[in-house]
Amino acid sequence: MSQGVSFLLTFRDIKPPEDKETGRVRPYILKFSKNGMERYNANADEVEKRLRPGGRFEQMKKWGSKFTGATVRLAGNFHVAEHYNSDPWRKKISENTLETAIQFMDVIADHSTAAFDQMGEDEVMERARVIWEWVTGKWIVRTGKMTFTNRDAQQNLKTRYKTWKVIKEGIDILVERYYLNDLTPDKTRGKLYEVNPKALK
After folding, report:
1. Within 10 Å of residue 161's Cβ, how many Cβ atoms?
2. Residue 84 and residue 78 in contact, taking contact as beta carbons nearer than 8 Å
3. In which element (H, E) is residue 194 found?
4. CA distances to 3, 74, 75, 77, 143 from 9, in Å
5. pLDDT tens across 113-164, in order?
6. Distance of CA 150 to CAs 17, 88, 163, Å?
């Protein structure tokens, strides 16, 4: 395989044949075997499902939409590395080679998903910090109140955060970490929060 990788690194120096009539270069074309094509279609369908709401790529659609194409390109590289010494363009990409590429991309997807999740967590933490600064630096100072409602938060933070859902994600972090107490009575639509006095010390 190491020789195959070396071949890939120098492959750019190999010129495809030219069309005798037009003089244009005819690129080498790699094709899937019958089983390889079936596996490709199955994988493409699976990726489409991952892009749907609730799917693995829901929060990273731009990245996920490139998954199938990247897998195909990777399979092509694996194929060339495997058949580097026998004109790889004369053979079709096998199902096994494509499966190897899919498994490789799945590992990359795991790492990418973790990275996107971390970025999401960082954004929510930043939101929590902004909300805490608003509560302690503006709300308490201006109103003298240690409590606020969801309407108070929306009204005062609407220029920065457009929806209550976004604001609530930041507030939930503050509640989880005992900076705020959720005083909302059961079966009440509105939300009521209290600043934990210990968090101000």
Report:
1. 18
2. no
3. strand 192-195
4. 10, 14, 16, 10, 67
5. 776 666 566 788 888 988 998 998 889 888 888 999 999 999 999 999 989 9
6. 69, 63, 11
CB 18 within 8 A of CB 28: no
Q: From 73, 71, 108, 78, select the one nearest 94 (Cα to Cα).
A: 78
pTM of the model: 0.55
What is the SS3 assignment for 83? coil
Q: What does residue 33 show for φ and ψ, rounded to 5 degrees?
A: -70, 175
As given in the structure block, the two tokens for residue 3 are 């020789």
Please count the other Cβ atoms lying within 10 Å of the Cβ belonging to residue 67.
Answer: 24
68 vs 40: CA distance, rounded Å: 8
- CA–CA gap between residue 108 and residue 34 (Å, rounded): 26
Domains of the chain: 2-118 (no CATH), 120-200 (1.10.10.10)
Residue 51: C-alpha distances to residues 46, 59, 101, 177 (Å): 9, 8, 19, 33
Task: State the first-to-last Cα distance of the chain, in angstroms, to the nearest integer.
Answer: 63
Geometric angle at alpha carbon 127, from 123 and 128, rounded to 5°? 120
Tens digit of each residue's pLDDT (9 = 90 or more) over 6-27? 555 555 556 666 777 787 877 8
